[in-house]
Design a protein that fits this description.
It contains seven helices and 26 strands. It is mainly beta. Helix 3 runs antiparallel to helix 4 and helix 5 packs across helix 6.
């Protein structure tokens, strides 16, 4: 999904009257927005491409075998190695075979070519096999044409499908498996498309047609959820909604809407976040363009800020272009570039505290991989370089920023993440996840990295532990209690460096510290796409960055923290 990078200067504590209510910096849009952005759901995965099964190991045939076979000889195309050919025919050697079993041997050779990435025809030419030696003739197939079938087929869609297939596999050229697989996966990446492929004998000798079946698919879906993952000052309780509509203007496009409203048990108007994205494919190679915009408004509603006029709003526009550099069943890698423009306004005591903009450009890679280690595993990773410019020329904070943290001007940031879900078998698995960032200078509150929250060190509140550089390592040992229930023991470790340059008047002497916690998580998924999760986390040690009262930066001290989430897909 597309992610915005918002920017805001930290709000100033206005006057001595405010300081009597809080001994820590008031949150602003910069520190509140990242926790809304990280909640955007990832796109749903494409259907798994069904591949043909390997030919079964031959069983002894009926009586009256044709001949006792002592070996096979390959004729024609010799793309595969001698070792690969020998392995394919080994089950058929030194045994009597009838004609059907000889055909199975030829099929096994064709499968060996397919495993090597080629589509061939393997036949038994007319021959004398009385000496126990059988010749198998192999000829590479060439793509004859593309056929489009199924209940969703139409002339317009057939043109698109043919474009995707021929962009990967030119007609008249030797037929390869990987390009056809990539074409099907790219088609399935299109929202609202469910495609499968099969090979069929062409009209001319040596030609093979690729048949693409378009099955009915869901054109719109979404989810609603309720949790307590928000920040306390703007409301920790949240209602979230996501809606996706495919095929709005053309086949393969999508409109997505993401909404978040936060509140408290006594205040209903904490913050509101709306994001709209329209995306569409460009050409037939997998390029995709996304145009997005979002709005955010907030009011600090916790008791220490009530009636003090802390509020703000922001708007943003962005464009993203992505390309699948690698796309197959086992691993994928996408190149993603984006540009964005954001504007933000913070108020305190009903007066403007900061008003400014940020221009940002980023380029990165994100990927997934599946492997058979143990009982199977999946891995995800991403790395993004972000270069931007923070414009404080119209902000009242420009002079104070220049003499202290100096966040204004250009900045460069590197963000990274890695996660591996390792299946151990018998319902047990281990999850390890690492995410973090570093930068070349002090950062504004929105560009900073945060340790706490339901997606970080879960023993601490959202927005806790911020800095220009940091990382969070999370480990979970999971166990399936029943088909719909899962229990996990968890451990989180986070480390943060507050400032790149901490040599200025008024800088905190504490510039590096860690947060740790452990706990348990219980999750349930119902048959009607309902999910419930409950997480308990306890901090290890104390918060090195506690306020003078010994509390966390949100003004609370909760030794045993509980997170909950309830969601329903539709």
């Amino acid at each position: 999904m597309v992610k915005l990078r918002w920017h805001a200067v930290r709000m100033l504590l206005l006057g001595t009257g405010l300081c009597t209510h809080a001994a820590y910096a008031a949150p602003d849009a910069g520190s509140l927005l990242p926790h809304a952005q990280r909640e955007w759901p990832a796109p749903r995965p494409s259907p798994i491409l069904q591949r043909p099964e390997a030919p079964p190991t031959p069983e002894p045939g009926p009586a009256k075998p044709v001949v006792y076979i002592i070996g096979f000889v390959l004729e024609g195309d010799d793309t595969i190695s001698d070792a690969e050919f020998s392995a394919a025919v080994a089950p058929f050697i030194s045994r009597p075979l009838n004609y059907a079993e000889l055909l199975a041997a030829a099929q096994a050779v064709a499968w060996a070519y397919r495993q090597a990435g080629w589509v061939v025809s393997a036949t038994l030419p007319e021959q004398d096999v009385s000496d126990g030696i059988v010749r198998i003739a192999v000829n590479r197939a060439v793509l004859g044409g593309v056929e489009v079938t199924g209940p969703q087929a139409s002339d317009t869609r057939a043109t698109v499908v043919q474009g995707y297939v021929t962009a990967q596999q030119a007609p008249g050229q030797p037929l390869r498996v990987q390009p056809l697989d990539r074409a099907i996966l790219l088609l399935n990446d299109l929202p609202g498309v469910s495609a499968s492929g099969a090979l069929r004998e062409g009209q001319r000798v040596g030609e093979t047609n690729f048949v693409v079946n378009l099955a009915p698919s869901v054109n719109q879906y979404g989810d609603v959820s309720f949790d307590n993952s928000g920040t306390r000052p703007s409301g920790s309780l949240r209602v979230l909604g996501n809606w996706y509509r495919a095929g709005l203007l053309r086949w393969g496009d999508q409109l997505s809407v993401n909404l978040i409203h936060s509140f408290t048990d006594s205040q209903t108007d904490g913050s509101d976040y709306q994001r709209f994205v329209y995306s569409l494919p460009l050409g037939y190679e997998g390029w995709r363009l996304a145009l997005g915009g979002s709005l955010f408004s907030y009011r600090l509603v916790s008791s220490e800020y009530a009636g003090l006029g802390f509020a703000g709003d922001s708007d943003a526009l962005d464009v993203e272009l992505s390309y699948p550099m690698v796309r197959n069943e086992d691993h994928s890698m996408y190149l993603v570039g984006r540009a964005e423009h954001t504007h933000i306004d913070n108020q305190g005591a009903w007066a403007t505290v900061s008003r400014y903009r940020v221009e940002s450009r980023s380029i990165g890679l994100r990927g997934t991989m599946f492997d058979d280690l143990g009982a199977g595993a999946s891995s995800t990773a991403s790395i993004t370089v972000n270069a931007g410019y923070l414009d404080l020329r119209d902000s009242p904070t420009q002079s104070s920023d220049a003499s202290t943290t100096a966040t204004g001007g250009t900045f460069t940031r590197l963000r990274y993440s890695f996660a591996r879900d390792q299946n151990l078998g018998r319902g047990f698995s281990i999850l390890a996840a690492l995410n973090g960032q570093t930068a070349d200078k002090n950062l504004d509150s929105n560009q900073k990295f945060y340790l706490g929250g339901s997606n970080g060190v879960r023993a601490y509140p959202a927005s806790e532990g911020s800095g220009y550089q940091g990382f969070v390592l999370s480990l979970e040992a999971r166990c399936k209690l029943a088909p719909d229930w899962q229990l996990a023991a968890l451990y989180d470790y986070g480390y943060v460096t507050v400032n790149h340059d901490n040599d200025y008047s008024g800088a905190s002497s504490l510039n590096e510290y860690r947060l740790r916690g452990y706990g348990l998580a219980l999750a349930w998924r119902g048959k009607r796409k309902q999910t419930l999760s409950l997480t308990w986390a306890r901090r290890i040690g104390e918060n090195a960055n506690a306020t003078s009262a010994g509390n966390d930066q949100d003004g609370t001290y909760v030794r045993d923290r509980v997170w909950f989430n309830a969601s329903l897909d539709f």
